[in-house]
Amino acid sequence: MSVNEQVLSYPIPAEAPLEPPAEWAELRGGCPVAHVKLPSGDAARLITRYEDVKQVLADPRFTRQLTAPDAARLSADGGGVFNSDVAQIIPDSGDGHLHWRRLVGKWFTAKRMAAMRPRMAEIADSLIDDLVERGAPGDLRAGLGFPLPVYVICDMLGVPAEDRERFSYWSDTLLNLTRYGKEEIEAAQAEFFQYMSDLIAAKRAEPGDDLLSELLAAGGPDEGGLEDLQIIVTGMALLVAGHETTANMIGKMVSMLLADRARWEALLADPSLVRTAVEETLRLDANSGFGLPRYLPVEAEIGGETLPKGTTVICSMAAANRDESAFEDAASMDLTRSPNPHLAFGAGAHSCLGQSLARTELQVVLEVLLRRLPTLELAVPVAELERVEGLAVGGLRTVPVRW
Predict the structure, then answer these.
(1) With helix as H, strand as E and coil as C, how does 245-312 read?
(2) DSSP state, 176?
């Protein structure tokens, strides 16, 4: 039976940790709007072509209203970052959304990121010191990939970094697909919400030089600021988004570059390739997680097919990023590829707010690793790397390395 006649279970499993499922190419070629069954058992449509994914992400008819009664639930227990009521507190569209992005986005400008680079490099250097001291082989994910983005986002939010283990657990429950049960998720979300509420109250009493204090200083909605509830949810969203995705991407990026020694050698010979190399690993990441779900409250056409109102679609940016019609020699890694209009950070009004932060962290980590550990290599065969399962984000459980 061909892919366009069957209902695929989603996420589609891959044979190898860094490679895409074979079905992606088949779907792009013959069934760009496929029928899939989600972990919850609910039905959705999967979009895999570059032009279609870009169109859906830019089209306001495809909304983030995944709490609608007929929207597909992603996980059997509901909840999670996409289906929760908390996700609805930040305005989804229109002036409210633009206003929120303007207020928060001031903290993610290229200028501010450039100012943060030296501090990021300092953190990376110190984490590599610890890794080296513990001796090879080491786990690059636990030793560098995970703590660096957490320290950086904690700095930005004015959150004590010693609480990072708790954030990690809370994040995982919010990104749940199949790993946690409903009661555990609800308890963790309640704890996380309480933690952030207490932190906001403390910052109101004693403001610091951080994003949350500045959002409070902007006043309430009448003064052009946000409601306290929106600030609390913004803090939660940035903590989850600001560490989990980049932490995983650091491990995947280094693994992809070490999987073929010629790539690492090319970067050692010419470190000016770091910027384009980071973009190319983002484009080729075949283990980026669930993709972006959207809900249709009206009928709409995509990829030559009319979708009825009430349809939930999943955009696979990772599949779209390997579309031959958008990228020459799309399956190959070209460290010099430029321009590289990949969709790893989405597109349109909801493209990732923190993408300049993620890019800067990835570039800094790569620069520091090339300088400090030029002989770095994977300590296990690539095929033995294990994927993180059961969460909405993709990643590797460990990245064993030696140097």
Answers:
(1) HHHHHHHHHHHHHHHCHHHHHHHHHCHHHHHHHHHHHHHHCCCCECCEEEECCCCEEECCEEECCCCE
(2) B
- Could you give the angle at the alpha carbon of 344 between the alpha carbons of 270 and 111, nearest 5°? 65
Nearest to 321 by CA among 266, 384, 394: 394
* Cα(92)–Cα(89) distance, integer angstroms: 8
- Please name the amino acid found at residue 323: D
Paired strand residues for 292: 315
**pLDDT tens for residues 354-402?**
899 999 999 999 999 999 999 999 999 999 999 987 777 789 999 999 9
**In 3-state terms, the chain is what percent helix, strand and coil (to 5)?**
55, 10, 35
Sheet containing strand 8-9, edge to edge, reads 8-9, 33-37, 43-47, 312-315, 292-295
Check: CB of residue 297 under 8 Å from CB of residue 63: yes
* Residue 358 in tokens: 């993620």
**Which residue is associated with the tokens 């089209």?**
59
Q: Are strands 300-302 and 305-307 parallel, antiparallel or unpaired?
A: antiparallel
Report how far residue 128's alpha carbon sits from residue 254's, in angstroms, rounded to the nearest whole number: 14
Amino acid at 38: L
Contacts of 40 by beta carbon, 8 Å cutoff, 6+ apart: 72, 73, 74, 75, 76, 78
CB atoms within 10 A of CB 164: 18
For residue 336, which amino acid is it? T
Give yes or no for a contact between 330 and 25, defined as CB atoms under 8 angstroms apart. Answer: no
Q: 393 is written with which tokens?
A: 């984000």
Is the distance from CB of 131 to CB of 125 less than 8 angstroms? no
Q: What pLDDT score does 97 carry?
A: 77
Query: Residue 315's beta-bridge partner residues?
Result: 47, 292
Cis peptide before 137 (omega within 30 of 0): yes
As a whole number of angstroms, the distance between CA 182 and CA 187 comes to: 9
The whole-number pLDDT of residue 172 equals 75
Domains of the chain are 3-402 (1.10.630.10)
Residue with the larger pLDDT of the pair 377 and 156: 377
Tokens of 82: 């996409």
Q: What is the spatial distance between Cα 374 and Cα 368, in angstroms, rounded to a whole number?
A: 10
